[in-house]
């Protein structure tokens, strides 16, 4: 799974750096030359989608998604295991739908020969972020579920920015 983490982190890092560089160059172009790059918005939006879908996978691994951990910890270990399985299955169901419909969209764009307006790159290349991110999220969901279901092992709950002791002050 370290290889998957490396791929995820690299994709997000390159996408974020690409967005920053393209946006910065576009701002400079508008400031100095009073014109902007036609492709800047197109590339930036698609890189943002890629970073979002792959970043969701990283968040699943880190258990950084919103959850009701306070209520979860109030249940006994048996019910906690059932909740882990139930929430994981629901996530896998949703992600499988996203994967299926994302693939249908990619195939539709390939069949129709859709291209992006500014760069005339095949649109399916960018839309591929949807099934890719869904697949990575599915892998991470199964990974986290298996770790949490191991006997006498629970992943630590995500740390909040404000400790409960600080709240009482």
From TrEMBL:
Compartment(s) where it occurs, according to its Swiss-Prot or TrEMBL record: Cell inner membrane
Domain Tripartite ATP-independent periplasmic transporters DctQ component, first and last residues per copy: 19-145
Record-level Gene Ontology MF annotations: transmembrane transporter activity
Keywords: Cell inner membrane, Cell membrane, Membrane, Transmembrane, Transmembrane helix, Transport
GO BP, one annotated term: C4-dicarboxylate transport
Topological category with respect to the lipid bilayer: Multi-pass membrane protein
Bilayer-spanning residue ranges: 12-33, 39-60, 81-101, 121-142
A GO cellular component annotation in the UniProt record: plasma membrane
InterPro entries named in the record: DctQ, TRAP_DctQ
PANTHER family tied to this protein: 2,3-DIKETO-L-GULONATE TRAP TRANSPORTER SMALL PERMEASE PROTEIN YIAM
UniProt family annotation: Belongs to the TRAP transporter small permease family.
Protein's name according to its UniProt entry: C4-dicarboxylate transport system permease small protein
